[in-house]
Amino acid sequence: KGYNMAKVSVYLNFERNTEEAFNFYKTVFNSNFIGGGFARFKDIPPTEDSPQLPEEDKDLIMHVSLPILGGYLLMGTDAPKSMGFQIEKGNNVHISLEPDTKEETRELFDKLSQGGKISMELQDMFWGAYYGSCIDKFGVHWMFNCRAVPKVMIEVTVQCEVKKVWEYWTKPEHICKWNQASEDWHTPSASVDLRNGGKFVSRMEARDGSAGFDFSGVYLKVIPQSFISFAIDDGRNVEVIFIESGKETKIIEIFEAESQNPVEMQKNGWQSILNTFKKYAEL
Fold first, then answer.
1. In CATH, 151-281 is 3.30.530.20
2. How many CB atoms lie within 10 A of CB 209?
């Protein structure tokens, strides 16, 4: 079963000063970059068809994403002339669509490009997306970026009012008590900046000290006692929905699966953490 996590974003093209512009926007919106911050052209895997970049263009920005208001993303790239780009009024701003499926992407692409111009035909790209771009018949520029990753839903019903559930879900002192899939792991520390664009970090470690990692990312949208969406540092998105019914609260969590481990294993791990939360909240 699929779950709708489609998004709409604004994409800005700059000739050579994306980094300067987005560091400025970062301070304006008091937010944090997602997906690892600035990705540069020198990070593109080389192919036979790719143009040879001059040395002075290799550190230019290939992609950056910044949460702004209401969970929306501001994205950007440098568009150097060495790669065939020519920035003009009208092509420096794009509307970026991220549909859930290739079929939906193709349908939207065909409709918006009809009577307009196809800038880049839809195709599979090296970053794992089905991507293309077009200009509609009114001169508006559109980008399509469909990431074909499985979406997994888990849920649990907690016998507590949503006010308590929200507090236990979002306060670091409580997160450290329940954020574990099994007894041989724990979360010794956590930090939460609970706002759109705020960062979070939970340090997860094996109790015997043999392994550990930071589970961290940026909040995209926060609606108190109702909804949280966030981007993990590896670029995957997660949504958490809180539904109160009398003195109980249903928590629905939808996450994008990673590619290194079986989806069922990931689902079981996330569900175990959710079950641990239920047990802790109901004490």
1. yes
2. 7
Structure confidence by residue, pLDDT tens digits, 157-176: 999 999 999 999 999 999 99
Structural domain boundaries of the chain? 7-147, 151-281
pLDDT in tens, 53-63: 888 999 999 99
pTM of the model: 0.72
At the top level of CATH, the class of 7-147 is alpha beta
Domains 7-147 and 151-281 equal at CATH topology level? no
